[in-house]
Amino acid sequence: MAEDRRRPGGGAPDAEPTEVRTPFSEDEQRALREAFAAGTPARCPRCATAMTARAIGGGSFGLGYARRREWLMCPTCRRSVMFDIARGTRN
User: Fold this and answer.
1) Helix or strand or coil: residue 65?
2) Which residue ranges make up each domain of the chain?
């Protein structure tokens, strides 16, 4: 019988144990941020799939600022990058 590699609580099977998902390089992250800022659909630099964007709010109540972040996720290879929209940086 095949081994069940489902995550606890259901969901898709985990990746193969030998598969290592290396994060995007600094150059790849920069290209993704620039594509997003230009309004161009961001494509994953590893597998060329259109990336899914999710806006993430930030900051706390009472602070004089609120951070606006964007999280780009690849639905195929499951890599992602998050950056601050105003600053154009990862932090």
Assistant:
1) coil
2) 46-59+66-91
Which DSSP category does 6 fall into?
B
Angle at 83 between CA 82 and CA 86, to 5 degrees: 155
The pLDDT assigned to 56 comes to: 82
Question: Which amino acid, 18?
Answer: T
User: pLDDT tens-digit profile of 6-15?
Assistant: 555 555 555 5
Closest CA to 85 of 44, 61, 57, 51: 57
Contact 82, 26 (CB under 8 A): no
Per the structure block, which two tokens stand in for 11? 């969901």
Residue listed under structure tokens 């598969």? 19
Q: Is 43 helix (H, G, I), strand (E, B) or coil?
A: strand
- Cβ pair 36, 43 in contact under 8 A: no
Q: Give the contacts of 86 (CB within 8 A, at least 6 positions apart).
A: 67, 68
- Whether the model clears a pTM of 0.90, i.e. scores above it, the answer is no
